[in-house]
Amino acid sequence: MKNSKKLIFFVASLSFLISGCTSVPLLQKPQAPAPVVERVNFSVPLKGKNVLDISEDVVYAREYNIPIQSAIVISVPSDFSERVSKSQKPIADKEEIATTTDRQLFTTNNYFNLAEQYIEKELIRNGFAVIDRSKLEQVLRETNASDKISKEDFQTLSESNISENVQEKITDAMLSQGLGNKLNDIADVITAAQNPKVNSDYVLQINKFDTPTRKRQKVDLSRIPKFRRFKEENAQFAPQLANEYVYYIYEVTFNAKLIEVNTGNILWIGDHTISSLDVVLGDEDLEMEIVGTKKVNDQYLDKLNKSIDRWNTSEGMKERKNTPVQIPGVSQWEYDKKVKHNVSPDVQYTDISKDEEEEITDQMLRNVTKELIRTITRGK
User: Fold this and answer.
1) Which DSSP letter does residue 129 get?
2) Rounded to 5, what percent of the chain is helix, strand, coil?
3) Among residues of the chain, what percentage have pLDDT more than 70?
4) One-character DSSP codes across 190-210
5) Rounded CA gap, 20 and 34, in Å?
6) What is the pLDDT of residues 117-144, one digit of tens each?
7) Which residues of 275-304 are buried (b: 16+ CB within 10 A; e: fewer)?
8) pLDDT at residue 42, rounded to an integer
9) Where are the domains of the chain?
10) Is the pTM of this model over 0.85?
């Protein structure tokens, strides 16, 4: 009888324990939904490309004929070489900058420079006999090229082999500019070019050849239908879809004019600008892909799973028996929403190396000289 009572008590206790556990089922860990990925591809026309026909920036004399192998010498501003050097060193010291701000000088401290070599190559390729610029500068130094000349010196020059036409142009320039006893810079160059030590038929006067400078640009993507539609259809990514896309360009400008030495006539004037977009894109537009990704926040999911593990312990099940627990639906979970812009090529240059920058610069210098110099032979 005594054993029967113990058995009844054990069965009752076990039944109570089982009923207590089975009334609070184990919570199942939910399956995280697969990431949602939305994407769109479209072309982006960028500002900063050299879209104009180069003929729009070139002016010719109505009639001129340049015989093959005509002698030509280059005349450049004093800071020309340093502004286009590959080393990208400062333009000049303060004193030289102050001097060249007022006027252009036709000497240079650094004789060898990359840009001038490109110009010489293109002149030779277009049939000119290029005279080394050192000869011109030597004559300028010998004839006191400091831009100071007395009336007696001018009279001496007038009696030399300078043509009457050039003498008149020099005199007119002196009177119109109020120079008195000074010759203007280009007259010095023409005079030196006629010297037998130079004996050039033409002077290519370089007025401007800037070092490529980096400029900030922007484009309004909302004007592109595909972008606008993607933003409207994916409101969840809209906060990260900026309408403005910022990019950068490098630009170099080449401006020059061709002067006939014997007459002083300007036969050709050219101005041309090349940007890095012309080098890396050519006639193409920028290709952009926008990828929007929505996925469960990893930290949130980890926290949720740890909570479920705790609620499935005996202590947690007791708590849930008194206070039921409901796992949030997937729509209530925390999500990461990221938008990535993939562009080809990269025109933001966020990680551009010095070598890559120099490669773009060199290509720009080659292109701008080639495209502009070859127009000289197109006079009629």
Assistant:
1) E
2) 45, 20, 35
3) 72
4) HHHHHSTTT--SEEEEEEEEP
5) 37
6) 889 999 999 899 999 988 988 888 887 5
7) bbbbbbbeeeebebebebbbbbeeeebeeb
8) 92
9) 53-212+252-274+352-378
10) no
